[in-house]
């Protein structure tokens, strides 16, 4: 008999199970970066459920089991994960990684994702990006970098991704199977935006390399692109 699995929460179930006091992932000892990442990746979507079940070549089954049985399944079943479960995962990451501070320090979510996806589970990179016609590079998530823009007061994710790609001269080499996006910096000292509206769908037509698009003047297939 294989490991138990619970499906991600859909709209009505998500509200019922996740709303209210003592819901979500309990924070402890600067765990917010990991709590937010795990909640986003697993609570309401199954796109990355292969992380929980697939026997990847480099896969550490112990870490995979903790992630599945102590964090994702309780989150989907009861809407609550206790801090001790996340600490158990953090202790394992400290053992497996080259970094000794996963149990107490605040980290960048990208550092956590790279460690667990690449070094512990051995998953292939999810994104292929190309910058300014240079050699393509692979990664697991995309972090939005941009200068403060006065015309964006309450932006949505679509606007942020498009402007970030534009300012970095980036293109997606292919349609990603999963597009993990890290929002702009949001710390104690500095907040770029007080609120960001989630885009429920993301149109990546203009972000794809060599994707056929229509001319905004005549409607035929475009041959030139103006930034």
TrEMBL record:
GO terms for molecular function: cysteine-type deubiquitinase activity. InterPro entries: Papain-like_cys_pep_sf, USP_CS. Keywords: Cytoplasm, Hydrolase. The keyword Cytoplasm applies. It comes from the Eukaryota. Gene3D superfamilies: Cysteine proteinases. This is CYLD hydrolase. It comes from Sylvia borin. The lineage of its organism: Eukaryota, Metazoa, Chordata, Craniata, Vertebrata.
């Amino acid at each position: 008999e294989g490991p138990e699995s619970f499906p991600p929460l859909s709209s009505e179930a998500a509200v019922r199970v996740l709303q209210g006091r003592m819901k979500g992932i309990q924070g402890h000892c600067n765990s917010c970066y990991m709590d937010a990442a795990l909640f986003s990746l697993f609570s309401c979507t199954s796109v990355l459920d292969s992380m929980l079940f697939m026997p990847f070549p480099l896969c550490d089954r112990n870490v995979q089991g903790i992630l599945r049985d102590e964090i994702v399944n309780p989150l989907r079943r009861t809407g609550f994960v206790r801090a001790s479960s996340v600490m158990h995962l953090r202790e394992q990451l400290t053992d497996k990684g080259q970094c000794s501070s996963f149990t107490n320090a605040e980290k960048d979510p990208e550092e956590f994702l790279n460690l667990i996806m690449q070094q512990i589970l051995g998953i292939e990179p999810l994104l292929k990006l190309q910058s300014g016609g240079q050699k393509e590079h692979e990664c697991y998530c995309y972090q939005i970098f941009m200068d403060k823009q006065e015309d964006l007061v309450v932006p949505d994710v679509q606007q942020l991704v498009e402007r970030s790609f534009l300012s970095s001269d980036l293109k997606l080499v292919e349609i990603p199977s999963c597009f993990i996006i890290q929002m702009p910096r949001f710390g104690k000292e500095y907040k770029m935006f007080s609120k960001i509206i989630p885009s429920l769908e993301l149109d990546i037509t203009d972000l794809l390399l060599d994707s056929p698009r229509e001319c905004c003047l005549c409607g035929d297939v475009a041959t030139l692109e103006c930034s």
